[in-house]
Amino acid sequence: MIEVKSYLMGAWVSGERKTELVDPSTEEVIGSISADKPSLLPVLEHARSVGGPALRALTFAQRGAILKAISKALHTQRDALIEVSIRSGGTTRSDAKFDIDGASGTLAYYAALGAKLGETRMLTEPSEQLGQDSRFFGQHVWLSREGVAVHVNAFNFPAWGLAEKLSVAILAGVPVITKPATSTSILAFEVARAIVAAEVLPQGAFHFVAGSLGDLVEQLGPQDVLAFTGSADTGAKLRGARSVVARSTRVNIEADSLNSAVLAPGVAPGDDVYRIFLRDVAKEMTQKTGQKCTATRRIFVPRELADRVQEDLAEELSRVKIGHPGHDEVRMGPLATRQQLADFRAGVEKLVASGARIVAGSATDVAPIGVAAGKGFFVAPVLLRADAPGQADAVHAHEVFGPCATLCPYDTHEEAVALVARGEGGLVSTVYGDDRELLRALVLGISPHHGRVLVVSAKVADKTISPGLVLPSCVHGGPGRAGGGEELGGERGLRFYMQRTAVQGDRALLDKLFEAPKPSAG
Ligand code: NAP
Q1: How far is CA 113 from the centre of its chain?
Q2: pLDDT given at position 518
């Protein structure tokens, strides 16, 4: 039994009342977490007054060195963390690596960025002359906010979610209070323990809240920031918090997304691009049991290819072995919680009621490998098809958070663009094709509705990333339904945690105030 504790003001703290945590493959109780509603005001004050100044005293290069040490600490614990992920999150070994290596990789990326930014504490933009006088200039500078970063994470990436937000905030010089989702908090707790054990962060720079934040969000002030990942409903609640509305606490929301794969006209079965399209869609439906914010939910194909795609995809999906993730042959584990299972089944029904039909798989009928009968939160991947996708409203509005996607035949590429946009803002859309004019029309039509667009053409067919992979160098987020936020993206990500100020004055003086950083030795 593992007790998930909080790490507050330098000490590990237990809750009084407890919520049980279960292994989603067996339903065995494996741990507990606090069910209290704590007052975290002292923690907020401590982070602001102790952690903030200590971090801001360090340069980007020094903060980068801290991130490098944390990345190494997680990598050293990799095997143990993978085992924790399998047991507490129902992830296969490969899914666990995706989360855990994503965490250490993102930390390492921001460590390297810190070294590159060097021995300075601010970011500057090119200065420009203001008005007629050649001495009077304006210079935009970015300095660390003097508040706290509160991070609220979703259940699906307990390691990466914690680490990617932490990397950017710490490099920007802002102390962190991080809260994992309750259901998969055991892995986040082990990550937090590794971070604390590394003893590289200054006092007050890192706090881990197991369970509820109490009224912390309402207590945030004008220099604090709130970064949230989770459902659109919770995101909307947090956006309406008094601190955000009345004190302009800066907020970033990463929420639902009805990501799409678009097979452009002209691609033939047998082409490399078609092969990669099938591989990607099957992977994006089933990796992490479809519990990825970037998973493909809608598949747009030219109408004349719909039957063939349906047949090929159904075959790919039928090969996915489902069961206890501890078994070597298993490729897809359970959903994370009983509630997720209920939501998944209800979601599939909603898509069916909206005009889609199930053409492969089942939300209820599955015989998982290595699991006692009736135990665990298992489903088979479900492929639906909506032959009149324009009328199937729920397909474009309801995110079924599991291994489920809907095949949507289209007649023209203009219709494909319009249907993709019906998702009202997404994290990622992937376009597969080779005709440059069609790709141009599709990419330019789809891009304003997305944070990221991946284009898979023959020349890069075997070189591209899988669409669901979030790289720290590219922004992650999307407009509208996806929350309207933006995370990561290299140096771009730091700006959420910093204040841009236009400083105006004598050019020579400004040059002196904002001297270029010296190159870092590390
Ligand atoms: P959720 O139920 O909204 O929970 C997300 C987080 O918010 C959890 O840590 C939860 O804590 C916390 N929370 C809930 N109510 C809160 C409140 N009133 N005040 C403060 N915190 C609160 O979402 P989820 O089920 O964990 O995640 C699934 C969703 O996340 C999916 O819709 C998925 O698309 C989305 N997601 C988006 C991204 C992205 O980058 N865009 C990434 C991953 C997931 P408790 O668990 O303790 O309740």
Answers
A1: 20
A2: 57
